């Protein structure tokens, strides 16, 4: 059962590492991401924070998976 849990955590981590940066690239190209003077908008900041949280969860998942296997 521990191996199954570790595999699920690894899969979730891989998904977050692949999905969030690619999604954020699309957000950054969106017209709502920058104001008229080129500064990042709230739209950009919110999605940037969501990406950071997703990547932090991925890192925590990898650590938890490794600890389960040790």
Q: What is the fold's blueprint, element by element?
A:
Layout: H1 2-29, H2 42-69
Order of helical and strand elements: HH
Characterize the overall form: elongated
> So how many helices?
2
List low-pLDDT spans.
none
Biggest β-sheet, characterized? none
Describe this protein's structure.
Helix 1 (2-29) packs antiparallel against helix 2. The chain starts with a helix and ends with a helix. The chain has 70 residues and is mainly α. It contains two helices and no strands. Helix content is 80%, strand content 0%. The chain has helices spanning 2-29, 42-69.
From the structure above, extract its key features.
80% helix; mainly alpha; 70 residues; single chain
Question: What's a quick, concise take on this entry?
Answer:
The protein has helices at residues 2-29, 42-69. The protein is mainly alpha-helical and 70 residues long.
């Amino acid at each position: 059962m521990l191996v199954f849990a570790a595999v699920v955590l690894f899969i979730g981590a891989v998904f977050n590492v692949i999905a969030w940066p690619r999604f954020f690239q699309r957000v950054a190209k969106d017209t709502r991401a920058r104001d008229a003077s080129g500064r990042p908008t709230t739209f950009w900041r919110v999605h940037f924070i969501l990406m950071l949280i997703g990547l932090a969860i991925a890192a925590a998942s990898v650590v938890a998976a490794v600890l389960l296997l040790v």
